[in-house]
Amino acid sequence: FSEFATDPCRSLFKRLTSALRPSVTDNGNVNVSRLGDEFIAMTETPLPVVFDPHTLEAAGVAYRPPGQLTTAHPHHDPGRAELVNFAVKLGPRSHYRFFAQDGRGHQRSLASVAVREPGYVHSFGMSQRFLVLAEFPLVVNPTRLALSGRPYIENYRWEPERGTRLLVVDRRTGRLRSTLRTDPFFGFHHVNAFDDDGELVVDLCAYEDASIIDALYLDAVREERPRLPVPTLRRFRLRLEAGRVDHEPLAEESFELPRIAYRHCNGRPYRYAYGVGRGPGAWLDQIVKVDVWERIARTWREDGCYPGEPVFVPEAGGGDEDAGVLLSVVLEAASASSFLLVLDACDLGELARAAVPHRIPFGFHGNYFGVEEAQASADGRW
Questions:
Q1: Half-sphere exposure at residue 330, Cβ-oriented, CA atoms within 13 angstroms
Q2: What is the pLDDT of residues 317-363, one digit of tens each?
Q3: 96 CB-near residues (< 8 Å, 6+ apart)
Q4: Containing H/E element for 352?
């Protein structure tokens, strides 16, 4: 099976036939979400897998995105009880396709934008009015992708002279509202996007280039001091009428695997973002909370501990934007074990930890599903 950085040994004939009938992975190890009353596990190939939350048994493919590549970061549209996502349709004339999927098996096309050489896209932004796609100058020739016999990501080329394109699609009409260009940079994760008096604000975790991909190969990670590029939380202000993009950093701390109070703030103005960052060590070793209004950061760290993505769980009944807790699976290197850390999302004070007598491998993304979320999903409100 073809995956992000692995590819089976195949003859030229098999590569040609697999281009027509791709044998893509169903290893949904990037993220989990909920669609209707089903739980799904996702990766960047178009096979979101339904699984039983009690036994983890797989129960088939949830739906088929309109393309060969997609993201594991769909957005929820609570007004229509749909997941909104993006897919790349590869071919002689490739397209970026936005679509919506509900829990009853219905899929809607939202927009389609033609592209000659698609960029690598891991996530996208969604405001109340717009969908925004950051096309970094890490691009691929579809024919090369089909025939090279190399792992999927190794077919992409870094071409900084292209700059970064920001494609803005009107959610109501499906039309391409604007195509704006800015400096070349790379990123995996959008934090949030919102409309602001005729402008579109887009917050991203930004790298200077795509070298983070090479830095995460096992031989690089196993070096004595891994050279891990540092991402920054950066705000892009898209001035749609003027056709101009301005950008600025929102914090001095490095920042990745971002989370917000999604249900209340996604697509709207917000104040707090949570993530992980690299402190004094060579790896991600601290949890970071950024106040994007005040442009200040607060951190949690403990010597020899390496936290994973902090999942925000809001306080029942509402309250302030940061009323709730953060959940993070933390590796304690000295004991080769892990624990689930519970922090107060307001001040990052520790509330509890649940230890396990072994290490839990690093993962990517997770979500918390409580009774309220389950009922909202069943009622068609989520």
A1: 29
A2: 878 999 999 999 999 999 999 999 999 999 999 999 999 999 998 88
A3: 86, 87, 88, 89, 111, 112, 113, 115, 118, 121, 133, 167
A4: strand 350-356
